[in-house]
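Researcher: Structure for this, please.
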Amino acid sequence: MRTKPWTLSDEFWEKIKDEIPKRKRDAKREYQRKPGGGRKPTEPRKVLEGILYVLRTGCQRNAVPREYGSSSSLHRHFQFWTEEGFFERIWVLGLQEYDEMEGIGWEWQSIDGSLVKAPLALEASGNNPTDRGKKGTKRSVLVDQNGLPLAVVIDGANRHDVKLLEQSLDALVLKPQQDKEQSSLHLCADAGYTGKKARQNVIDRGYIPHIRSRGEEKQEKQEGKSPRRWVVEVLFSWLNRFRELLVRFEKKACNYLALLHFACSIIVWRK
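Model: Predicted structure, token format:
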């Protein structure tokens, strides 16, 4: 039987449940209620499924079925878990397990950026040159040779890809093991990353740059070869299946980034 896309499997929950942040009482503060008093909190698993429901469907929080808790409860838990770095942590755990079981394709990595609308954003937004100057956000991602996400950063839509190169390479959530660092690391990118400074930044971080123009990629395709850089487009396709990411309605950059981290963790764990 096919499960709903916002339902967490028992196997996945067992892997991440110990990472759920727990609120602690402030010893210096006086509370009216005793510990354990009042209404029982919603189960963390249901809350996480509620957040995933929003991420997958793109609906407003007040439209989430009541079985996952109230909209205020979902928002409160999401804010707390974001502050605690929970979503990035489970992404890293997934990468670590995948590296042990299958092995991350560190040798050939790819980088690129994509644009999304951001009508309500107050941070990390700018005039989108491809959308008549409307507000938008750029997502810069780094992937392994299989398209698995290794790093994600966001900025304004008017920020050029090459300006986010250093930040993206430095945002790796998991570093390769020492024996893998000794092998050659290659970075594939399109013509948006051309330039002496960009090339030197890539070399300084231990990569061999492979920057191709559209004409060169077209020629490779005619020769029956698929450009290695195209795996990054696979990740963008996977991310766009999470409808909440297609148009950014989050005002704060950290909230949208947390949703990206959650989506990346789901992609990695399902792989």
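Researcher: Any notable elements?
Model: The chain has a mean pLDDT of 90. Residues 123 and 253 are 5 Å apart (CA to CA).
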